[in-house]
Amino acid sequence: MPQAVLENEPAIRLAAFLGVLAVMAVWEVWTPRRRVEIPRLLRWSNNLGVVLLDTVLVRLAFPVLAVGLAVLAEENAWGLFNRIDVPGWIAILVAILVLDLAIYLQHVLFHAVPSLWRLHRMHHADLEFDVTTGLRFHPVEILLSMGLKLGVVMAIGPPAIAVLIFEVLLNATAMFNHSNIRLPSRVDALLRLIVVTPDMHRVHHSVNPSETNSNFGFNLPWWDRLLGTYLAQPRDGHEGMTIGIEQFRNRRELWLDRMLIQPFRGPASGYPINRPGKPTPADERKRHR
Hints:
The protein is mainly α. The chain is built from 14 helices and no strands. It has helices spanning 3-7, 9-30, 40-61, 66-76, 88-112, 114-124, 139-156, 160-177, 185-191, 198-202, 209-212, 222-227, 256-261, 281-288.
């Protein structure tokens, strides 16, 4: 990885973050998919406050992050790709795929284990669905996610450039597929063959548990299709569906202080998957036919 790129990694990621955020914010105003009911100032100030807190805590908690660890792994011959001889472009592509699969599996895990769902439900408790929803994660979940990501990097020893590409893509696509934008149906149908679209991921933010427990992909849509968690459309349509979860439906719950203590309040609810009597995405698909 060129030293100049590594030295400018924070600037590259920040520029990509701010650029995509600005583009999606303008796009949402220009052609929204759903009517905005809650003032943006309320939601955006608190959602972006979570982003700032998450960023500071990750920097304090980890002496090295994913790209830096990939550089260390290469220097010390740690991980699979640093011990086998494969063309660089293959290593980059496979590393991005493996990292994306790891994030998909992590997402499923945070829905399957009630204690982890308590952390992840803060993301789902947003009462509207827009670009800032894709940035709204509890700090403990972010720390656990970073720990998992570092473990994958240690195991596979990916090229540092692959990790940087993945990090930028994951952040950008998370903002894109959480955006309140309207895409022509044909464009959406084509796009969701290669990337998770807003209409695809919005299903995952439905108040209906069987829809919440579908469409776990953040970047690539293939894992949902291959592993049986894909659901094409919400039961009540994109304009009619209710966003969020059954708990925390008061607007006061959108404030930063309330978001941070949500994991410790109330039961885990009926959302964790694999609970008796809970319909699966396959069951929901049958209902739609």
